[in-house]
């Protein structure tokens, strides 16, 4: 038995809660991962995991062993990277999930510079707006807009996304140009709703002008949980939408979208990178987080200055 690989397999099963998910993230077969954990249990003469048809739960002995193994693996990595003659460049596979528009418009164009700096990191980039569980899905980190409320995650604030309100000319010709955000509650108007992870599925948009505040709860023509589909619905003239500047800019420049409510400010959207609080932060994850902070963390075409 390769004890190192067996410990790695055990840690990933605990973190994902599944032999199948652990196997996928380790690029091994489920049978191999199962055998590695079984061999580890046989060597220790302790049951580390409770297995059922639906879920894998760690035992009390397994939880204690997990904490020790995580520290051990972290120490091994630190030892290897700290040796004077060792290759210190971070390497290995890094699994990241980011919103699809951010991946397409911001990260992908910038990735050549990242890989020039860290050529030995293999990046598996999930581009989706679905709610990804970094622990259960075996992802090293996620980048998401909105507050991070899960206590099992550590989060680092990257930026505040500038937002604006837009609509297609065809929509405005049909419904009229609203002069005040409250007019979006009228029957003639529709919004494009984004499905947030909230009880009602979408969040109100706070807008401010001087000491006045408006929160829009308009009726929606369509609601989606994908940023690219959200933008497409607005371009098709289905309603009013709230967009980060980096998504709206080319369409506003071409006239495909028109800005609304001059003089009003939309509260910026915080952007975070989040990762499991209990998992060791590898060097490859650390340098990726530092890089994305460098990419997004300063006021510029994507982000707003902090208030």
From TrEMBL:
Keywords: DNA-binding, Transcription, Transcription regulation
Domain HTH lysR-type: 1-59
Entry's family note: Belongs to the LysR transcriptional regulatory family.
PROSITE patterns tied to this protein: HTH_LYSR (PS50931)
Record InterPro entries: LysR-type_TF_proteobact-type, LysR_HTH_N, LysR_subst-bd, WH-like_DNA-bd_sf, WH_DNA-bd_sf
Pfam family, one: HTH_1
Full protein name: LysR substrate-binding domain-containing protein
Source superkingdom: Bacteria
